[in-house]
């Protein structure tokens, strides 16, 4: 053994080599030997332990097997003696003790399934004259047996309960025996013959501690929903209600309620799992009031962390068991019910219940879906959500049935009616609802319309009719909607509530002081409830406006909000919309408003923008606001704004052109259709990010009316000029023609369509037009731009003639697309597309056309939705009929109306359904608002949808859609056809140039003197005679290109004045007599002698 001494010994190495050993090497060697010895000892001990464990397990297995055999024999003997009645009470109790005690020793789930079932069956066997079950007999003894028996049962209950939940293959008769035992032992009735009732309390706590409710949940969930007749499932569910009720009632144990909510009420299709009789018993025993109040008091903390697949069934089950009780609930319980529903709705991700609607592709022309077509949200259609979206998985139709109770009209009326205090009898809205109640209702309804977007129109329409405070605690739309349309309505109460908030006061103060709003208003958590109120008021008032005519809007007795309040509200939403669009870069659109979990910045921006646009549209059609009301109340450097927005547009367009060019090469193999599709996809993606890329363009595209119309026109012209510079072959003194067309004057439209339509966006360039006379000879003249203007004017005159069939006139002689079926054929749609390009060319070149379009047509072309208030311009009689229906106080069903409309097609009447099975869906008082909306929507939007899409597709080839979105339909009409204002002689004289005349010539003096005396109608005829359009340019005559010119036509005073409308040229003979000039000029303009006579 090494002792630490390093004194070398003399060694003799017979090999002849001397071995060198150092101290460190010897130490390492010794350590390694020690480690190996220790490892060997550890292996030896481990082997002994393993052997001991194995011998112990083997012995235990043998013992358990012996116990099983003995237990089987003893149990059989006990069962036989109980049936025969040959045992005494003590013997039965001893036998029960022995059976349970021995079973707990040997029980192993894998091998003792049958024995567990047998034990449960044994313990509930009745015996004796009183038929007392075996498990209850030990409690009749006055010795220590009851205490020891309780301990055994408290040990057995968890094992039996756990096995009930974990075993996967239950036979019904076996499961029923186990559940019957658990049900019997938990029932206080089982202890009526016992010496004392204390065991029931102890065992009840044992059931809660054993987690039997989760085990019952596992057992029931493993059973197919269709097996409604399984007694074991029925008993298990009823057992869960007993345990929950007894634990909470006796001990105030909230844990039992939480277990019941999170494990039983989250079972999918719980009402569908049992028979009607069992469902009735379950509903009766269900401690719903206690559950609701507990959840409300804890802010639903126990369910906040539940996964989505649990929250939705929980919501469905609470609705299933609660919707019929609402009318009978106390005020405290009904408030709790509202809070719980609100909480659960807030926990369900958007699109989890209803998938977002997919746009329908046009079967006849797939290209229609490739446009950059911006469509406003339809009432009742899937909307942008206040919360983040989530992938949708289709829900079971039976689950949807229960969930649909959330937006059921009667259910909503009961909820709202239950909130009204019983003592409320006044007409003052402030006395109807408390601030807390208003906040709860607001959040509930916002969540509801978010998760059920397809039912939004029904929900909001029902709210339109609901009135508070007139019949005590309850107030039902079904009983009151036949009277005055608006009593103390929800919109009035909630608007007043919003106007009483601190947020409203800050907004009003900022507006009155012309100071910009702060982003902090959006981020401040203290304003969360106020933002919710504003969002809900905006949603509801938007829906009210959808079916409100202009006459009703201006009538304070029919408009729930007075016009003065509407004006104030419009100012508020205008400034908020501007704040949210202008600060897009500073705000996350997916973030919460003011800390609210349910309201997103993007959703608030969308809904206040929608309300702002609707209110502005009303004012544009029939003014009710002061002049310049819609302009920003805060200062804005317009010159800097214009320069910045023009630069933003140039940058976006350059990026877009670069992306298009890079991807066109990759797409050419797929053809031009794929190229176009890729370009439009890029445009849509860029448009969706427009506000973030350029807040100024976001403002111009969504709330453009906050900027003066003249400034927007200037911006539009700058956009066009910028586009000219980027487009090859458009700029220059006389650029090369990109297209040549020989046009016969009798077929201008057909020839133009055949020869120019294929050019598409190339129409931006110069088009060389040559007119062919009736003899087939080209007319003399060089097209410097004027001949094209003449061509365009002639084409518009022919194409928009109602006899041509593409367009029709309203009663006010305004043009709109022919809605008949033949106008939707492919050939006709290509004609509409060509006309869109022609009007795009006119806008691009600044050429005014002599055509007036219906507002609903231009609105549709701008991607907006037309509503009932647009209907009078198309069909006044239909509008009157719908308004009659809306305000009809009798039984609506007596009118025998169905959800259908009739179309006349070539002398044949075609009936079209507005909803699935509409021909069998009767219009009632409850659904009449939807019928009114759908009828107006069909006439104003659906019938002309494809025509408008084709027209817009052609228009967008030349005019970028985001340029058009800077204007509404009335402003677009001005852009196309000139201003509706009178002719300003001062402006006209200032912008006239003379050829072979000077301003002091007598003829010129006579001319202006005659024009001064003309009526407004004659002045318009004069302007039309010279320029082909009777309206002045929207920014004055300085916009004419070329300038309006008066040229000396010679000394022949017998000649009539003539004009070249293509050049804005008046050829005026040098008259020496004022009266002769007047006579000749008036004759010429009234006979419309123009280009042909020059």
Task: Catalogue the unreliable spans.
Answer: 192-196, 359-373, 377-392, 422-430, 470-487, 681-687, 1089-1094
The proportion of residues in beta strands is under 5%
Helix fraction by DSSP (H/I, runs of at least 4): 40-55%
Question: Which class best fits the helix and strand makeup?
Answer: mainly alpha
Calculate Rg over CA atoms: 43 Å
Number of helices: 43
N→C terminal distance: 135 Å
GO molecular function: ligase activity; ubiquitin protein ligase activity
Domain HECT: 763-1094
EC number: 2.3.2.26
Protein name: HECT-type E3 ubiquitin transferase
Give a quick precis of the structure.
The protein is 55% helix and 5% strand. With 1094 residues, it is mainly alpha-helical.
Write a structural description.
The chain is mainly α and 1094 residues long. 55% of the residues lie in helices and 5% in strands. Strand 1 (126-127) and strand 2 (132-133) form a beta hairpin. It is elongated. It starts with 22 loop residues before the first helix and ends in a 7-residue tail after the last helix.
């Amino acid at each position: 053994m090494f002792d630490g001494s390093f004194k070398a010994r003399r060694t003799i190495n017979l090999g002849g080599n001397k071995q060198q050993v150092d101290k460190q090497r010897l130490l390492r060697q010794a350590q390694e030997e020690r480690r190996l010895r220790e490892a060997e000892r550890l292996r030896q001990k481990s082997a002994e332990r393993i052997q001991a464990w194995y011998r112990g397990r083997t012995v235990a297995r043998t013992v358990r097997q012996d116990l099983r055999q003995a237990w089987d024999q003893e149990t059989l003997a006990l069962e036989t003696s109980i049936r025969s009645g040959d045992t005494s009470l003590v013997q039965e109790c001893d036998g029960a003790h022995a059976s349970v005690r021995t079973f707990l020793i040997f029980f192993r789930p894998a091998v003792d399934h049958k024995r567990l079932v047998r034990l449960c069956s044994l313990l509930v066997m009745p015996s004796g004259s009183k038929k007392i079950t075996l498990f209850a007999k030990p409690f009749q003894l006055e010795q220590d047996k009851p205490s020891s028996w309780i301990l055994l049962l408290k040990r057995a209950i968890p094992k039996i309960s756990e096995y009930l939940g974990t075993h996967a293959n239950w036979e019904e008769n076996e499961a029923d025996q186990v559940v019957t035992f658990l049900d019997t032992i938990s029932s206080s009735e089982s202890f009526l013959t016992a010496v004392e009732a204390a065991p029931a309390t102890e065992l009840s706590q044992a059931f809660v501690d054993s987690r039997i409710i989760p085990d019952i949940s596992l057992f029931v969930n493993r059973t197919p929903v269709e097996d409604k007749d399984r007694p074991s499932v029925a008993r298990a569910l009823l057992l869960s209600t007993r345990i929950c009720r007894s634990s909470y009632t006796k001990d105030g144990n909230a844990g039992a309620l939480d277990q019941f909510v999170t494990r039983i009420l989250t079972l999918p299709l719980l009402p569908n799992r049992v028979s009607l009789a069992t469902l009735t018993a379950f509903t009766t025993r269900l401690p719903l009031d206690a559950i609701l109040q507990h959840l409300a008091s804890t802010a639903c903390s126990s369910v906040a962390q539940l996964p989505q697949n649990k929250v939705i069934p929980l919501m469905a089950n609470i609705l299933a068991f609660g919707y019929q009780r609402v009318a009978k609930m106390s005020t405290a319980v009904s408030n709790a019910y509202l809070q719980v529903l609100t909480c659960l709705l807030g926990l369900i991700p958007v699109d989890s219940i209803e998938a977002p609607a997919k746009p329908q592709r046009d079967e006849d022309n797939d290209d229609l879906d490739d446009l950059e077509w911006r469509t406003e949200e339809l009432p009742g259609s899937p909307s942008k959500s206040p919360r983040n979206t989530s992938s949708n998985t289709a829900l079971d139709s039976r689950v949807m049935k229960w969930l649909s109770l959330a937006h059921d009209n009667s259910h909503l009326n009961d909820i709202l009616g239950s909130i009204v205090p019983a003592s409320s009898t006044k007409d003052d809205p402030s006395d109807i609802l408390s601030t807390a109640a208003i906040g709860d209702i607001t959040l509930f309804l916002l969540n509801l319309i978010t998760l059920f977007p397809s039912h939004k129109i029904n929900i909001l329409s029902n709210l339109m009719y609901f009135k508070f405070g007139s019949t005590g605690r309850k107030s039902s739309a079904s009983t009151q909607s036949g009277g005055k349309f608006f009593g103390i309505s929800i919109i009035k109460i909630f608007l007043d509530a919003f106007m009483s908030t601190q947020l409203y006061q800050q907004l009003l103060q900022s507006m009155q002081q012309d100071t910009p709003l702060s982003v902090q208003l959006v981020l401040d958590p203290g304003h969360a409830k106020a933002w919710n109120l504003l969002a809900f008021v905006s949603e509801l008032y938007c829906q009210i406006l959808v079916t409100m005519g202009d006459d009703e809007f201006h009538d304070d007795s029919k408009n729930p909000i007075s016009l003065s309040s509407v004006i104030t509200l419009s100012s508020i939403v205008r400034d908020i919309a501007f704040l949210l669009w202008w600060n897009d870069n500073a705000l996350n659109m997916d973030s919460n408003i003011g800390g609210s979990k349910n309201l997103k910045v993007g959703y608030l921006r969308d809904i206040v923008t929608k309300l702002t646009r609707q209110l502005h549209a009303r004012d544009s059609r029939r003014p009710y606001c002061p002049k310049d009301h819609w302009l920003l109340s805060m200062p804005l450097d317009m010159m800097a704004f214009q320069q910045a927005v023009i630069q933003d547009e140039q940058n976006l367009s350059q990026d877009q052109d670069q992306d298009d060019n890079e991807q066109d090469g990759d797409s050419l193999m797929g053809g031009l259709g794929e190229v176009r599709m890729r370009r439009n996809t890029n445009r849509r993606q860029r448009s969706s990010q427009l506000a973030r890329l350029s807040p100024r363009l976001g403002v111009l595209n969504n709330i453009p009316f906050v900027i003066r119309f003249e400034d927007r026109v200037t911006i539009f012209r700058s956009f066009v000029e910028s586009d000219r510079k980027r487009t090859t072959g458009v700029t220059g003194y006389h650029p090369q023609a990109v297209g040549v067309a020989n046009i016969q004057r009798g077929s201008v439209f057909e020839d133009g369509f055949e020869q120019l339509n294929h050019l598409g966006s190339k129409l931006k360039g110069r088009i060389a037009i040559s007119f062919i006379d009736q003899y087939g000879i080209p007319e003399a003249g060089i097209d410097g731009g004027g001949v094209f203007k003449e061509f365009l004017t002639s084409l518009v005159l022919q194409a928009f003639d109602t006899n041509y069939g593409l367009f029709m006139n309203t009663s006010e002689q305004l043009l709109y697309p022919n809605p008949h079926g033949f106008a939707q054929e492919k050939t006709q749609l290509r004609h509409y597309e060509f006309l869109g390009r022609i009007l795009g060319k006119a806008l691009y070149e600044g050429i005014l056309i002599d055509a007036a379009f219906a507002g609903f047509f231009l609105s549709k072309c701008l991607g907006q939705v037309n509503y009932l208030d647009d209907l009078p311009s198309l069909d006044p009689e239909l509008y009157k009929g719908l308004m009659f229906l809306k305000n009809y106080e009798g039984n609506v069903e007596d009118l025998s109306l169905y959800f259908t409309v009739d179309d006349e097609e070539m002398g044949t009447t075609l009936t079209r359904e507005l909803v699935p099975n509409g021909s069998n869906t009767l219009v009632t008082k409850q659904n009449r608002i939807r019928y009114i909306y759908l009828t107006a929507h069909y006439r104003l939007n659906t019938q002309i949808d494809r025509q408008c899409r084709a027209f817009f597709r052609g228009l967008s080839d030349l005019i970028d859609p985001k340029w058009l979105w800077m204007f509404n339909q009335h402003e677009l009409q001005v852009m196309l056809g000139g201003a509706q204002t009178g002719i300003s002689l001062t402006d006209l004289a200032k912008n006239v140039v003379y050829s072979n005349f000077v301003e002091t010539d007598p003829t010129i003096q006579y001319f202006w003197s005659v024009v001064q005396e003309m009526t407004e109608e004659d002045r318009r005829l004069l302007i039309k005679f010279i320029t082909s359009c009777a309206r002045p340019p929207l920014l004055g005559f300085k916009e004419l290109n070329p300038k309006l010119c008066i040229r000396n036509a010679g000394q022949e005073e017998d000649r009539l004045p003539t004009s070249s409308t293509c050049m804005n040229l008046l050829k005026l003979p040098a008259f020496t007599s004022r009266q002769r000039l007047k006579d000749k000029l008036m004759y010429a303009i009234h006979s419309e002698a123009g280009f042909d006579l020059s």
